[in-house]
Amino acid sequence: RRCTDIICCVIFIVVILGYIALGVVAWVHGDPRKVIYPTDSYGQFCGQKNTLNKNKTILFYFNILKCASPVVLINLQCPTTQLCVSKCPDRFATYIDVQASYRYRPDQWNYFRQFCKPGFNNPRKSVAQVLRDEDCPSMIIPSRPFLKRCFPDFSTKNGVLTVANQTTFKDGRGKTRNVTDLREAANGINNVLDARSVGMKIFEDYAISWYWILIGLFIAMMLSLLFLVLLRFTAGVLFWIFIFGVIGIIGYGIWHCYWEYDHLKGIPGSDLTVYDIGFQTDFKVYLQLRQTWLAFMIILCGVEVIIILMLIFLRNRIRIAIALLKEGSRAIGYIMSTLFYPIVTFLLIAICISYWAVTAVFLATSGEPVYKVMANQTLCKYANLTCDPETFNTTNVTKLCPGAQCTFAFYGGESLYHKYIFIFQLANAFVFLWLVNFAIALGQCTLAGAFASYYWAYRKPADIPLWPLFSSFGRAIRYHTGSLAFGALILAIVQLIRVILEYLDHKLKGTQNSFTRFLLCCLKCCFWCLEKFLKFINRNAYIMIAIYGKNFCTSAKEAFFLLMRNVVRVAVLDKVTDFLLFLGKILVAGGVGVLAFFFFTRRIPVFAQEVPMLNYYWVPLLTVIIGSYLVAHGFFSVYAMCVDTLFLCFCEDLERNDGSTAKPYFMSASLHRILGKKKLSPKKT
Fold first, then answer.
1. Please, what is the angle between helix 6-29 and helix 421-455, to 10°?
2. What is the pLDDT at residue 427?
3. What is the pTM of this model?
4. Which keywords does the record carry (predicted)?
């Protein structure tokens, strides 16, 4: 063997070094506190330790009516003074009323002034000057913290929107306003708060059920391992059990949906439609509707019919695929260490994701504080212009625009580094995609090399080299890093284009240009197909690299034409095998899911007392089902790679050898029988 695609290898190493340098620069300039802590009008963090605001963790808005939407509030661009406070207001009050009563009700003044600018304690100052200089808010309203910011404490009473059971309030400027004005100023806050309530309940469910979730995932892992071990001896029987097990699970689901549908018959309110009740945060409400269970039953019936029809028309091909799986299980039986290689790929991808996320956060928080002129007068020509808070009072802005202030707006900068932060974020995303695809490519090439060493061993298992998995990993790193990086680079470019198209589609979602939407839809579809095709080509190219050690382009070309010459076998064996393995994943996830369902709904009497009290039992249930599927996918992906490698080796074996003594087949006798190949008699010498 020799090193392949050296130029791409050098570029890849240089890019990794540059990526590390980018992370270091972002770490030097970035400050994650800008994400963790809200910032007041003076650019100071709320709740930061060892500062004057260490006990003031919440951001308070002087006049929330000036804020157009929650997005504006979260981006810290609301055109009103923002102040760090220790707690949100819990009552209605106006500055006019508090000032008028401060002499005989000093407690009200002491409570109100904690929401004024630090150090302000002059209730004798005229109301007009106080509001002009924004020393104090004109009003305070009952609020509660959300995202470390004070938002109105909305609630609904008899279908009417209220704040602290009131529908009107004084705005501190001589007007009585309706609570709906607050709702319009903080559009969508009520829904967000409901979502927060649901989020908190979900977090509580995870906190008290995490160990049961881990137990469920451990059971899924053991089931996956058990199935893969049994495949070596009972592949046919086990996979037919898989198939009928899935059919049985779906059949049980159909029966359960019908039982629930029939059980709700005649119960008041059960005949309402989902449209009638609208969106509800308590999902149990939907389970009280007959329509919900009818929809579930129809969907499951459709899935059941599709699976049965596929089994009827593909029954002969399934027999062939099962026989090939037996050969694959025999290969894995000799190289058991391959089952645990997905853990290595998972760790590499986890490192990539962590580094990308940390770098993205530091890049996003690399800006310097930017201050802008905030003027009460709408005609002030200096409004929204940048300013310097240290020299602002010496300028003419305060004279031309009475009451104008130089307040913190957002984080940014005018330096060369800050101008190219967006480019750096794109580079961060691109290198992240490249590294993730490289980690996947390394795993595929390593597994392919290990299984190829099994196939090309003439006497199995005597001729299988020692430690085939580690040897294959060493060869991939030492000789083929450039080739793997080349394949990963092509895939990363296509994926980055897809990400950009998704971003443009999101931005142009509200446009009325039908041609633009149609063009974007076509481009997204084309690049999705291109990505799928490239993944297929790359996977088989990595197998050829592992077998012959050639460069990426040559390996991809040879793999493609080899598969085209055996396109019928590819369709029969490869895809049917993928389908069977997918059914295996479904059975593992479905079996563990059914067990988790009976457990979390207290339907297993032995463990009924052990089940934690949950807000939503579907939270740990869905986590166990999805997690079980991912665990099964990790183990079954090794099996799929084994089958693909053996099949490609078999096709190559058929073309290069004829079964004679000079050119004997390397395939096993069982593989001859699987694909109908007879051993040729040795040539007489």
1. 140
2. 92
3. 0.68
4. Antiport, Cell membrane, Glycoprotein, Membrane, Transmembrane, Transmembrane helix, Transport
